[in-house]
Specification:
The protein is an alpha+beta fold. It contains 27 helices and 19 strands. It is globular, with a radius of gyration of 25 Å.
């Protein structure tokens, strides 16, 4: 984890020192181990250092080559350093040091812009090429490390957080109403935009170049529609997955100082902990013995203590079990005022005590299970693929099982016929017929009723919520849904929010399931390796046989953490002036409908009826964000 900031005056003006200094001051929390600045003509680069790998202890950034023609700022970790070093040495470019930054800069010298396609790991970077008078920026394939930018005909500015850009006096500050609508609908579909009209998010797997008067962005990584893995049996799939997963975990165990792992008791985090213990703990690949950290919720259905203890008994790993306490002292108004960003998500607030314990033990790196559900849970629309292939016996069995599991999955009982029509027949119809079917079923709009209809029409909200990425080849329904999900903006936004939450609490989060190799594997295997007859994440369960304790490997329940979510949402909602909403004054919401829905939710919660309501949280959060950033903020 580090902080990046870069400025390029596209009109040739010299970069002033105070410009880059202000940007670095805004992200000081990202780099407690030092900062560095380089300026040359129209360009300025700034870096905040946070040591999280052994090699980074010897790094100074901005990093440059021996000629001074190439300068780099880098945030992240490169996992294929040995492979890149060998390739560079074969071409006569011997790295001068063992740091990741040196390998990255030498790779750019060797291969030019396509070098980024060769990098494995989590990273965001910017390189100033004085010979080409070009600033190059890039993010890793899955977007684990963030990068935002602004560009017009006069200036280009980029940084690790929006706050860094807003610290530059030339960056306009207007709300992006289109994205506000997507947030209120709880469907952040447009991945390249932010809540600020002028500030863009560099999307995962993209590289950007800025030079005199010109900014261009291209995708360098995408899921290959031709890639398929077909083995003889389940054991061969499981063996291949375990090999890739072990390597992903091993790479993320490379850290400076103690290593922490989050252990929830679920399949994903437990798989990481048990894999690390079985294959690496105490061995040459492990920097030190690691420790796990868990939240418990005594007396609530969210409590996973039994499963956590089972994993600890199975491995003998040291673990801290921390009792969840309501975070009443957390001030989301102050959070937005400090970071000039979207409020902290309620479920993240539950983690504050855990993060504090990790920091207190001197750890800076925390491994999490993020991405396991997204990559390996499978797709409910696979029923349509069974229908299209004429596998009627399997279809009937799958529909029956999905109907039986529907109360757990959807919170209500859904009949087999409904599932067949919605997940089997409907996805095979042309889009026009799908829209007609939704209309006949009474689904007139895909956003909540409190969004003002005039506002929705003005920003074309329905169209914004249904982007369709260009697909290179025909795909099965299940594959299409996986592809669309990985290109849908909400995935990018959530990963950014998770990164920001950890880094602002002094930690670097690493996610073994969000390794490019793991995701490409999940993409290439048959759908029935993920989901078959009620068994989700099937390949993970098969691969973890003998690694995980059976109590966890065979479990199909999953904690929802609805109680802490609602506790945090109510504490924030109680501070809102519901009769004088900023977002109503803007014409974004109908205040009466919104207030009524919030009151009904709180009344139900007080009676013990807990219903997850992310949409209501988005309305509260947008009100807090607008209140603080654009007026009416509390002093």
């Amino acid at each position: 984890m580090s902080g990046l900031a870069a400025i390029l005056h596209l009109d040739g003006r010299p970069a002033e020192p105070r410009e880059i200094e202000r940007m670095l001051d805004a992200i000081a929390h990202r780099g407690p181990d030092g900062s560095g600045i380089w300026r040359g003509g129209p360009t300025a680069l700034g870096h905040r250092m946070f040591h999280t790998t052994p090699e980074s202890l010897d790094e100074t950034q901005p990093h440059c080559d021996e000629t001074g023609d190439y300068r780099l700022i880098f945030d992240g970790r490169i996992d294929n350093v040995a492979e890149l070093r060998h390739a560079l040495e074969e071409r006569g470019l011997r790295p001068r040091a063992t740091t990741d930054a040196e390998i990255v800069l030498r790779s750019y010298q060797c291969w030019g812009e396509p070098f980024v396609e060769k990098l494995l790991g989590d990273f965001a970077l910017a390189i100033w090429d004085a010979r080409a008078e070009t600033l190059l920026c890039a993010r890793d394939a899955l977007g684990v490390k963030p990068l935002y930018y602004y560009g017009d005909g006069r200036i280009f500015v980029c940084g690790s957080e929006i706050n860094a850009l807003l610290s530059h006096p030339e960056i306009p500050r207007q709300p992006n109403e289109g994205m506000v609508g997507e947030y209120l609908a709880y469907q952040r579909a447009t991945g390249g935009e932010t809540l600020f009209r002028s500030i863009m998010r560099l999307r995962p797997g993209h590289v950007l170049t800025a030079s005199q008067g010109r900014i261009s962005v291209r995708r360098y990584f995408d899921l290959d529609p031709r890639k398929e893995l077909r083995y003889r049996n389940d054991d061969e799939y499981a063996e291949h997955f375990l090999d890739i997963f072990k390597e992903s975990v091993r790479c993320r165990m490379r850290c400076a100082g103690p290593l922490a792992m989050q252990l929830s008791g679920g399949l994903d985090s437990s798989s990481i902990v048990c894999t690390a213990h079985k294959f690496f703990d105490g061995g040459p690949s492990s920097p030190s013995r690691f420790k796990t950290y868990s939240l418990t919720f005594p007396g609530l259905v969210d409590d996973e203590t039994d499963y956590i203890n089972e994993a600890l008994r199975h491995t003998g790993v040291r673990g801290d079990l921390l009792t969840h306490n309501p975070t009443g002292e957390f001030d989301n108004f102050e959070w937005v005022r400090k970071h000039r960003d979207f409020p902290e998500y309620p479920n993240h607030l539950s983690m504050l005590r855990l993060w504090e314990a990790v920091r207190g033990d001197g750890a800076r790196v925390l491994l999490t299970g993020l991405g396991g559900d997204e990559c390996f849970s499978g797709c409910l629309d696979d029923i349509a693929d069974l229908l299209r292939r004429g596998e009627l016996r399997s279809l009937m069995r799958q529909v029956r099982i999905d109907s039986l599991q529907s109360p757990v999955r959807f919170g209500e009982k859904i009949g087999a016929l409904h599932i067949f029509l919605a997940k089997g027949l409907l996805p095979l119809l042309p889009r026009a017929m799908q829209r007609m079917a939704h209309g006949l079923a009474g689904h007139k709009q895909s956003f909540p009723p409190w969004i003002d209809p005039g506002f929705a029409r003005r920003i074309a909200l329905e169209e914004r919520l249904k982007p369709t990425p260009a697909r290179a080849a025909p795909m099965s329904i299940a594959r299409r849904d996986f592809y669309d999900f990985m290109h849908y903006g909400d995935f990018f936004v959530v990963v950014d929010e998770v990164e920001h939450s950890h880094v602002r609490n002094g930690l670097e989060a690493r996610h073994p399931f969000l390794d490019r190799r793991v995701v490409e594997f999940a993409w290439a295997i048959p759908e029935d390796q993920c989901r078959r007859f009620g068994e989700e994440r099937r390949i993970v369960r098969n691969a973890m046989r003998g690694v995980l304790p059976e109590k966890i490997r065979a479990r199909f329940s999953k904690a929802s953490f609805e109680h802490p979510f609602h506790d945090a949402m109510k504490r924030n909602g109680d501070r809102i002036a519901w009769d004088n909403l900023e977002i109503a004054r803007r014409g974004w919401v109908d205040p009466a409908v919104l207030k009524n829905d919030y009151s009904e939710m709180i009344e139900s919660y007080d009676k013990g009826v807990v219903k997850y309501s992310g949409r209501l949280w988005m309305a509260i959060a947008i009100e807090i964000w607008h209140n603080v950033i654009f007026g009416g903020a509390r002093s």
